[in-house]
Design a protein that fits this description.
single chain; about 45% helix; globular; 12 helices; 8 strands; alpha/beta
Length: about 300
């Protein structure tokens, strides 16, 4: 299956009110902003979108709203993974029906499947739909770890087209790029190593940082993919303090606080997550001011 989304793929937050309700007008404003800022795609209802705490109805509401608001101006990649294969199949079929351009499928969490179990889980999802599927390996959250050999095996399935690697292991990423087909998209899921991954042949960055500085992240990805090392390295050094603070507390706590401080969303976040601690607020505000995104 032909699939060619490259560059900055924003791991979009889900705006919420102070009482934790979905803030759909703010969500739609963010989509317009990212289109204007030059982001290359939006990943909705993933980890940054608080997928663990939105119910099924809200999940589909967010996907549909994103597709309608984007209106073809920017691809929408729907987070539709689950630790139940049947639930992931249902969500993915619905995302396809609603018009998403692709699906992000996280490794099943908590139930700790074997590599054979992971293979059959992702294969069942892929065979249930016509959407391009991007695998998402983040063992720091899921415990289960999708090994390189299993990823290569899954890449033989026609509509499994990419992987978001959030292991933070640059050696592993190099092996993935070496062993996978040239048209298989390896994306960074870790802003801190994204430039290195793209310089080694990765196709882009599924980015938390891009929520805050979308234009800059789009430019950084372009430079890195084009192999323009000095410019990419310099821009990455400028963003490093922001990369670090985006993960100083569990995602999306810092990024949602940053966007609230920038006046783009309200302060809402759902339990069991709570707001950013006061010491981190001071650190993050200082970095936001230094980057010129707020005063």
């Amino acid at each position: 299956m032909s699939f060619s989304i490259t560059g900055s793929l924003v791991a979009l937050v889900t705006p919420m009110t102070e009482t934790g309700e979905l803030d759909m007008p703010a969500f739609e404003r963010l989509i317009d902003w990212h289109v204007a800022q030059g982001s290359n795609a939006l990943v909705v209802v993933g980890t940054s979108g608080e997928s663990p705490t939105v119910d099924v109805e809200e999940h589909l509401q967010l996907i549909e709203a994103a597709v309608v608001k984007a209106d073809g101006r920017i691809p929408i990649i729907a987070g539709t993974g689950a630790n139940s294969t049947a639930e992931a199949v249902e969500l993915t079929r619905e995302a396809e029906r609603l018009g998403a351009q692709a699906s992000l499928q996280v490794v099943p969490y908590y139930n700790k499947p074997t590599q054979e179990g992971l293979y059959h889980h992702f294969r069942a999802i892929a065979e249930s739909c016509g959407l391009p599927i991007i695998l998402y390996n983040v063992p720091g959250r899921t415990v289960a770890d999708l090994q390189e050999e299993t990823t290569v095996r899954l890449a033989e399935i026609s509509n499994i087209v990419g992987i978001k690697d959030a292991t933070g292991n640059i050696e592993r990423v190099q092996w993935l790029i070496r062993e996978l087909p040239d048209d298989f998209c390896v994306y960074s899921g870790d802003d801190a190593i994204a430039v290195a991954l793209m310089l080694l042949g990765g196709k882009g960055n599924i980015s938390v940082t891009a929520n805050v500085v979308p234009k800059t992240m789009a430019e950084l990805c372009k430079l890195a993919i084009e192999g323009r090392v000095p410019e990419a390295a310099a821009l990455n050094r400028w963003l490093l303090p922001l990369h670090r603070l985006m993960f100083s507390e569990p995602n999306p706590v810092p990024v949602k606080w940053a966007l609230w401080r920038m006046g783009l969303i309200g302060p809402g976040i759902r339990l069991p997550l709570v707001g950013l601690s006061e010491p981190r607020q001071k650190e993050l505000e200082s970095v936001l001011v230094s980057l010129g995104v707020c005063s």
